[in-house]
Amino acid sequence: MKMRFDKENESYVLPASVVDFVEDTFASILAFCLLGISIGALYFSLRQMMQTHPFFPNGMIEGINNLLFVVIILEIVRTIISRFTDGIYQLEKFLVIGVIAAVRHILTVGASLTLESTKSDHIFYRDLWQLGLDAVISLLLVIAIYISRVAHRRKE
Predict the structure, then answer these.
(1) Domain range holding 141?
(2) What is the pTM of this model?
């Protein structure tokens, strides 16, 4: 990202190497912060899962939901790290994060539909709509991943 200062001399406010260094520094700090958050989230998720009564099925479902959240954070960290190796952020990695998030929501809503038998009709149908919408979103994201891979192969 080069910012022009003087159009006549075509000089830049900051050299590209300085901008790259600042961007890499912030990306590194962000990656370490996200890694710390994921470690903390993993600890609290396991602790909460073990303290939930009854453990089966409520604790297990809560644990799966929380662990998938940790997976999403780690995928974001992986995306940041791949920026250092590839030099760019890759679309496909963000699409995979979206698929994981949609599947996480599908599992959460599906589990709540299964476990809670005292839902009103309005809430039940709302949850069914959420499941359907999440399924469509997941399908569209998988199609986008496929299109991205096909386009990437054609470039090679």
Answers:
(1) 90-156
(2) 0.80
